[in-house]
Specification:
The protein is an alpha/beta fold. Helix 2 packs parallel to helix 8. The model has no long low-confidence stretch (mean pLDDT 96). The structure holds pyridoxal-5'-phosphate. The site of pyridoxal-5'-phosphate (PLP) has 12 residues, from helix 3.
Length: 375
Amino acid sequence: MHFRDRFPIFQSKIYINTCSYGALSTDVRAAYESYLDDRDKYGAHWEYWVEMLEELRIRIATLLNAGPDEMALSSSLSEGVNALASALSFTAGRNKIVVTDFDFPSTAHIWYAQEKRGAKIVRASADEDDRTIPLENFEKVIDDSTLLVSIPYVCYRNGARQELEPIIKLAHRHGALVFVDCYQAVGAIPIDVKQLDVDFLAGGMLKYLLSTAGTGFLYVRESLHEKLQPFTSGWFSQRDIHAMDITKNDPSPTARRFESGTPNVANIYAAIAGLKLIEQVKVSNVQSDVRELIASIRNRAADNGFKLGIAQQAHSPMISLKSKDMYALVAKLAEEDIIVSCRDDNLRVSPHFYNNLDDIEHLFAALIKHRVLMA
Ligand SMILES: Cc1ncc(COP(=O)(O)O)c(C=O)c1O
């Protein structure tokens, strides 16, 4: 079966909206069905479910070139980052957290929430065109009082992709830790946490990893586990989840210390199925397929005089087109069974390996028809 045929939505829609939610595959549907079958068959199947949780941990770790013990699984990116934030100490000499103009609201909110605990939040600003956050803007705000720099790899509003290595090096030179939100990149751009030399990285599995809402992960560099003890806890965060010892909190020596309670079992089935698909296709192939589709969108936008959300950009799985009325445009396209989304006056087009040049052809035919809504 051709991969695209595994995504029934393409029978009725042109779906180019992975930045919002990956398309549902027959594999993920079957995974949910097998969860329900197992409930019928076994009622409770906890040992197997814990094994599956560990399988998921290994698969996501492998995708990121992390060790399984460096991964905490969660129900959302925010859940993992909240646990991480709780483990940080803000001292007089090192209490600054650098956030950016490209942050997704959740990460910004979580870091600002730490102000009550003594954190000082400073923002690195984007350039005038909202195209990138120049390194010099990080240089202006990162200093020896910086505890952590938080950067999104790809901006959810416009698809701007940040070059991470120079920022990570700069932060480390000042003794600061670095957190990367890779949600809009993971599954579409190869990510190697060791090569990046990043301290923390978080994402979720509902977009380019093709599974479902309610699944997140947090990578924590091994050498930091013992140093960082979260103020959050729960039985799945313990050294031994079977210990059932209610007289103390005994956090796992691994990144599992950033987990909390019973995992969402049905979503584990779905997340494994989504990851297996990505493993079969390979992220490097996704990247080259998506690059070709994005290039075609960029060329067609230029041919038709449509403005891009950001003029020049490094390869990113999302491209944005300026619109005069983004909600009306998304609605008009939906009437023609073309599904995209919008933010910040931008139409967001976010292909995956299941899209093809015909999809882009249809999109542009519709955009030309609704040209009055383009900026
Ligand atoms: C860059 C980015 N970070 C985080 C999130 C969401 O995180 P959470 O799983 O906490 O809802 C999104 C969702 O669209 C996102 O695009």
